[in-house]
Amino acid sequence: MNPPADDKTVHTAQTEKRLVRLGLGLANWSEKWFPDPLVFALVGIVVVFVTGLVLRESPARLAIQGGKNFWSLVPFTMQMVMIIIGGYVVASTPIAHRAIRALAAIPESPKTAVATVALFSMLTSLISWGLSLIFSGLLVREMAHRVKGMDYRAAGAAAYLGLGAVWAMGLSSSAAMLMATKTAMPASLFNISGLIPLTQTLFLWQSIATTVVLIVLSVLIAYLSTPSAANARTAESYGIPHEPIHTSLDAKTKPGEFLEYSPLLTILVAALLGWYLIDVFRTSPQGALAALDLNTYNLIFITVGLLLHWRPKRFMRAVADCVPATGGVLIQFPFYAVIFGMIVGTGISEALAKLFSAISTHDTYPLLVAMYSAVLGIFIPSGGSKWVIEAPYILQAANLHHVHLGWVVQIYNASEALPNLINPFWMLPLLGILRLKARDIVGYGVLQMIVHIPVVFFLCWLFARYIPYLPPVK
Q1: Rounded Cα distance, 425 and 386, in Å
Q2: How many domains is the chain partitioned into structurally?
Q3: What pTM does this model have?
């Protein structure tokens, strides 16, 4: 008979083996059956249209409201594109490239490599989800030729964990930033909730604890589910060659290129923009954190990227390299705007509000919010746009049931990220860098989601019971 230590070792090995088999099975299934991201948007339009018909909305009204809103998210679309570009120009700077190479040299096995990618994906997503996608994608590319036998699918899925697990619990949370900025809120929403500062959302200790739990859990799953080299699909098996980030510049050949290679304009423009940003934070009526909206975030990353690239020529090359990764965002956001229009422009939103208030109680409300936000996120993958749709009736019901409004925002943030694990929309920039399809990495996302759902729902429900209700601050 083996000693207890041996029994424990055998059991651990069997558990890990089962997770690896499950991960491989889901990855193989998704490669065969998972559709293109555009299909999700088109199916979402059909589902919402049919829902409207069931609620006795006029087909003509649904079509008109959907079509009318086709271009309504153009400003938001450009903000998303600029987040991707801003993240890329920072992640592709010489200093960031050196950091990526240093990190890529640390892991010595496929499992530790994938776990490292998962950890840094989530940590960087707490600063900016755009930076997380790009930094993690470039890290995977660098590791692919350094760590022999690393499964490219598992590594790609780990790089996406920032968006699928904790991004909305960090500083780029659209919902938390909106509720902390009075000038950004619609008047009707402010009348319901008042101002909710970040100290009552992102910086609640319950929120921080939830974030830590999700990071540890995600890294552990990524580590245990990574296949051995014998079962791995490497970058080479996909025919993807190693392409290092280009940080050097060709010698200038024409006198007119002087300013393109000179840091003079870079320094002057970065100084001007930096001056403006300092003034934004200094003069913000609600404090410095309230100034951290999408526009400010984008400008910070563009300014930092411009300065760190040092020369306009290198900066523009980084932008040109990144633009192909934004194609999916540019074409799919208008279709999601159609869904937005059909929900908000008809009676669907009001019907949902009445239903939500009628079926919830103080004890069931947090769990219901989490479930509803996760399901709706399949059809509307934009955290900011979806919050604008949900917030009026979600927060009104919270006031009726005396549930802490800030924690409601965090329930939304934690649960709305869940469908990102399988919804391919936000994968698009990462997939462009990795040269993969959504079906290549979504299997490992399904594995993460299976574990995340009960954990997230439980924590959302548990903490809601012990955070006292605070009346709206107006």
Answers
A1: 14
A2: 1
A3: 0.78
